[in-house]
Structure formats: C-alpha cells, structure tokens
Amino acid sequence: MGAYVAVVGAGRSTPDEERAAEAIGRGLADAGAIVVCGGLGGVMEAACRGAKDGGGTTVGILPGTSRADANPFVDVAIPTGLGELRNGLVVRAADALVAVGGEFGTLSEIALALKTQKPVVALGGWELTRGGEGVEAIERASSPGEAVARVLAAYEGA
Fold first, then answer.
1. Given 3-state DSSP classes, what are the helix, strand and coil percentages for the chain, each rounded to the nearest 5?
2. What are the boundaries of each domain within the chain?
3. With contact defined as beta carbons under 8 Å apart, do 6 and 96 qualify?
4. pLDDT tens for residues 75-100?
5. Averaged pLDDT of the chain
6. Among 60, 71, 84, 86, which is least packed by CB within 10 angstroms?
7. Of 84, 119, 118, 123, nearest to 101 (Cα)?
8. How far from 52 is each of 107, 133, 157, CA to CA, in Å?
9. pLDDT tens digits, one per residue of 12-33
C-alpha cells in the first residue's frame, strides 16, 4: 500500500498555489500515494483535483458535519464536526505532509506533524525560527515535482 500524504494549505489560495497543489496531487497519485486533506477548497481542492487526474484516491477530513461540504474531487469524505480541531486528524491520518503556502491552520498542521515526527515538506509558506535561529525541521522544495520527490523519500526513510 502506498503512503498517505497530507497536502495542506489555505482554503483561499492564490492561483500559483493552486497550480502547485494540483501538480503535487497528480505527482503523488502517479507514485501510488493516497492524498489526505481537509476536504474543502483552495489548496485542498486543487490537490484532490490533481490526484483524481492522476488516477489516485483522495480523503477529505472535514471540519463540519456534512459530507456535502467536501470538494467534488474527494473520494472519501469524513465529516468530523470538530471545526479547526480536525487539523489533528488530517495529520494523524497521514504518513507525511506537504504544505503549500498557507495560513494559521496550515501552521497548526505543520506543528502537529513535526510534534508527531512526521516528515514535512514545504513549497513556499512558513519559515520557523527558535531564538532567532532558523529551524531546519521542515524540508524546503522549490517546485511541485521536488516537493513530491522529497516527501516520498522522507516517508520511505522514516
């Protein structure tokens, strides 16, 4: 069975972030990974769209109580009724995480993934520091293809 990789990012994202997330979703599907996300719009929808274009499977862990809230590219919609607390379930359901840009919700998913020692690859987005020094816990990627390669390599090495 392939890796379960969470693709996280803002629900209101830029066109560049959506193009990147779509390419990441497609690349993950091509590699046999299952794409996990928060199930809504923006980066989440773009990643699911890409995964479906690549013949992959998508899982959306929703903040609300209705499966109907899922974007149209989610295969398995899991309503939680937990609001933003569902971010913890997104991370727990995944073996590794790719962050594309993002807001505070994305930051919470990155933090939870790092706390649970899951690989995190970022394309754009958050820079973390501790005491004025950069934190090297997040692998950086400069393209969607590099993000896919890095997250899959990190998963295999974990």
1. 40, 20, 35
2. 4-157
3. yes
4. 999 999 999 999 999 999 999 999 99
5. 94
6. 84
7. 123
8. 26, 40, 26
9. 999 999 999 999 999 999 999 9
DSSP secondary-structure letter at 70? S
- For 14-65, the three-class secondary structure string (H helix, E strand, C coil) is CHHHHHHHHHHHHHHHHCCCEEEECCCCCHHHHHHHHHHHCCCCEEEEECCC
Would you state the torsion angle of the CA atoms of residues 10, 69, 60, 143, taken in this order, to the nearest 10 degrees?
-30
Specify the residue for token string 């109580």.
65
DSSP 8-state class, residue 118: -
The total number of residues shown for the chain amounts to: 158
CA distances to 115, 130, 154, 158 from 7, in Å: 17, 25, 15, 18
Q: Name the band, by pLDDT with cuts 50, 70 and 90, for residue 133.
A: confident
Nearest to 3 by CA among 119, 112, 108: 119
* Predicted pLDDT at 113: 97
Question: Which token pair is 114?
Answer: 């790092």
**R_g of the chain, CA atoms, integer Å:** 14
The hierarchical CATH code for the domain 4-157 is 3.40.50.450
